[in-house]
Amino acid sequence: MKPSRLPSLGFVYYLGIALLLYLPILLLVIFSFNNSTVLVFPLKGFTLKWYGQLSQNGELLQAVRNSLLIGLGSSAVATLLGAMGALAVVRYKLPGQGLFTAVSALPLVIPYVILGVSLLLLYREIGIPLSAPAAGLGHVIISTPYALLIIASRLVGFPDNLEEAAMDLGTSYWGALLRITLPICSPALLAAFMLCFTISFDEYSISSFLVGTDNTLPVYLYSQLRFPARLPIVVALAAILMVLTILVMVISEWLRRVGQTPARKVEPL
Amino acid sequence: MKHRGRFAALIGPPSLYLLLFFLAPMAVMALYSLRAGTLGAARDVFTLDNYRLYLANDNFHRLLLRSAGMAFAIAVLASLLAYPLAYYLAFQAGTNKVLMLTLIIIPTWTSYLLRIFSWKLILGSNGVLNSLLLWAGLIREASPILLYSQAAVIVTLVYVWIPFVALPIFAALERIDRSLLEAAADLGCQPWEAFLRITLPLSLPGVVAGFFFALIPTLGEFVTPLLVGGTSGMMYGNLIQDQFMRALNWPMGSVMSLAMLAVVLVLIFVLTRFGSLSDLAGL
Questions:
Q1: Is the Cβ of A254 closer than 8 Å to some Cβ of chain B?
Q2: Is the overall model pTM greater than 0.80, yes or no?
C-alpha cells in the first residue's frame, strides 16, 4: 500500500453515514435556539426562551417525574432479575436452563406492539388499573434480557472458585454471592442498570397502551407533537435529554468495559 | 441436593416474572381472540367468528403482506448500507475503530420519538430536503411529497436501523482470522476474490443477525408510520393499535396480534438456525 494524503473511500463513506446519523439530532438542537414557533428554515434568530419556559410547564415536569420513577423502579427490578438469571445460567448446568434462556431472550425480538397489547389485556382481565407503574412492569420484560446478557458476560470472565474459596472459609453460599460476586460484578450491574434505565426512559410503544391517564415523558412528548405552538419547548427539552442520555450511556459503556476482564465468550443462550 | 436448591432460588424469580408478565399476557390474548363483544365483554362466549372474519378480510392480509414487504426492504437497505460501514471499521479504521464505532452508536441513545419527528422536519414541505432541492434548482416549489408516504417510512426506519445492523456485522468481521486473508493473498488470490470467498461468507452470520434484528421489530412498527407515513404509509402495527385504542374491538385486535406473532415466531425460528439469539445480538 502506498501512503496517500487523500482520505480513503471507506473514511468518506463513514463520514457520510455519521453525518446522516447526527443530522436529525443537530436539527432539533438548532431549532431549540430558534426564535420562532414554526420549525422551518430560514432561522429567525437566537433565543433561550424555550429553555426558560421548560421549568414552568407543570404537566411536563410531572411526566418527567413519572418517567424517572418507573425508569428507576423497572431498571432496579430488571437488574436484580437479570443478575439472578445470569448466575443460574452461567454457574449451573441443570435441566430447565435451556427453556429459560430461550424464553428470556424472546422479548428482544417480539415487536413491542404485541407486548403492549397483551399486557393491556392481562391488566383488564385481572383488574390492574392502567398507570405509569403498570407500564413499568412491561419495561422490566424488555430490559431484563439486556441486563442478563451484560451481567452474564461479566460472570464468565471470572471463575466460580472464588465463591467456593469464600465458602470453604466459612461463609454461606448467599454470603459468598453478596461479599465476593456482587463486588466483582458491580460495574456490570451498574452498566446494566443504566442501560435498562435508558430503555425505560425512552420507551413509547408499550407505555402508550398501558399508562392510562398518567403521562410518561415519551407519551407526553408524543401528545405534544400535534400542537405546533408547543413544539419549540418540546424540542428544547429533547436537546437537554439528548445530552443527558449521551452522558449516562458513555458512563455505562465505560463501566461495561472496565468490568470486563479479557473477553471470554458468553455461554450461548 | 444443595445445588438444585440454589439453582431454583436463582432461576425462580426471573422465571416467575416471565411467566406472569410475558407468557400469561400471550395466553390472555389467545383467550380474548375467542371472545365476542367490543372489549371482549362476553366472557362466557367462545367463538371462532373473529378468526373467520379475519381470514375473510383481504384488506388485513394485503396490509400484513405490504408491511412485510416494507420491513423486508428496510432490512435489506439497512444491511447494504451498514456492511461497508462495518467493513471499514473492522478492516481499515485502525486503532480508532472502537471510538469510531461508538460515535455511530451514540445517536441511537437519544430519544427515538424525537429522531423520528426530526425526519418529519427534514422531509416536510419547508423541510431541509425541500430547501436543499429548491436551492439547487432541482425543484421549482416546495412540496410535501416526500412526507406521508411509504418512502418516508422506509427512509426513516433505514436511518434508525443502520447502527443496529452495523453492530453484529462488525462483530462478525472482527472475528475473522486475518491470516486467512494473508494466506489467500499468498496463494495468488485477488483482493476482491478473497472478499467474495472468505470475508463475505464468514461475515454472513452477522449480516443475518443484523437483518433479522431490523426486520422483526419493523414488522410491528406503528409510531413511525403515524409520524411520517400518513395513510399511504400505514403498516400492520397501526391496524393493531387502532383496534385497541380507537375501534376498541379487542377480540379482533387479539387475532391480528396473534397472526403477527405467528409470522414473527417463524422468523425467529429461521434466525435461530444461524445461532443463539444472544450470540447473534453481539452483546
A1: no
A2: yes
- Domain span holding position A137: 71-259
Identify whether A130 is part of a domain: yes
Instruction: Inform me whether the C-beta atom of residue A103 falls under 8 Å from chain B C-beta atoms.
Output: yes
pLDDT in tens, B32-59: 888 887 776 667 778 888 888 888 888 8
Look at chain A and report how many structural domains it folds into. Answer: 1
Tell me the per-residue pLDDT of A14-49, one tens digit each, with 9 for 90 and over: 999 999 999 888 888 888 887 777 666 667 778 888
Q: Is residue A16 assigned to a domain?
A: no
The interface residues of chain A toward chain B in range 215-244, judged by CB-CB distance below 8 A, are 218, 221-222, 225, 234-235, 238, 241-242
Partner B contacted by A82 (CB < 8 A) = yes
Q: Who among A114, A202, A221 is closest to B260 (CB)? A: A114
Residue % of chain B over a pLDDT of 90: 31
How far, rounded to the nearest angstrom, does the alpha carbon of residue A88 sit from its chain's CA centroid?
A: 23
Compute the average pLDDT of residues A83-109: 86
Cβ distance B7 to A18 less than 8 Å, yes or no, reads: no
**CA–CA min distance A194, chain B (Å):** 12
What proportion of chain A, given as a percentage, has pLDDT over 90? 31
Three-state SS for chain B is CHHHHHHHHHHHHHHHHHHHHHHHHHHHHHHHCCCECCCCCECCCCCCHHHHHHHHCHHHHHHHHHHHHHHHHHHHHHHHHHHHHHHHHHHHCHHHHHHHHHHHHHHHHCCHHHHHHHHHHHHCCCCHHHHHHHHCCCCCCCCHHHCCCHHHHHHHHHHHHHHHHHHHHHHHHHHCCHHHHHHHHHCCCCHHHHHHHHHHHHHHHHHHHHHHHHHHHHHCCCHHHHHHHCCCCCCHHHHHHHHHHCCCCHHHHHHHHHHHHHHHHHHHHHHHCCCCHHHHHCC
Closest partner residue to B281 (CB to CB) among A108, A125, A246 is A108
CA distance A243 to B114: 13
Q: Would you say residue A267 lies in a domain?
A: no
**Which domains does chain B show, CATH number per domain?**
66-281 (1.10.3720.10)
Find the CATH number of the domain harbouring A225: 1.10.3720.10
DSSP H or E segment with residue A49: helix A49-54
A150 close to B (CB below 8 A): yes
Q: Is residue A210 part of a domain?
A: yes
User: pLDDT tens digits for B111-151?
Assistant: 888 889 888 888 876 677 777 777 777 777 766 667 788 88
**What SS3 class is residue A34?**
strand
Mean pLDDT, rounded, of chain A? 84
Is the CB of residue B181 less than 8 Å away from at least one CB of chain A? Answer: no
Please tell me the predicted confidence (pLDDT) of residue A5: 59
Check whether A188 has a pLDDT greater than 50. Answer: yes
Note the pLDDT tens digit of each residue in A240-251: 877 887 787 778
Amino acid letter, residue A235? V
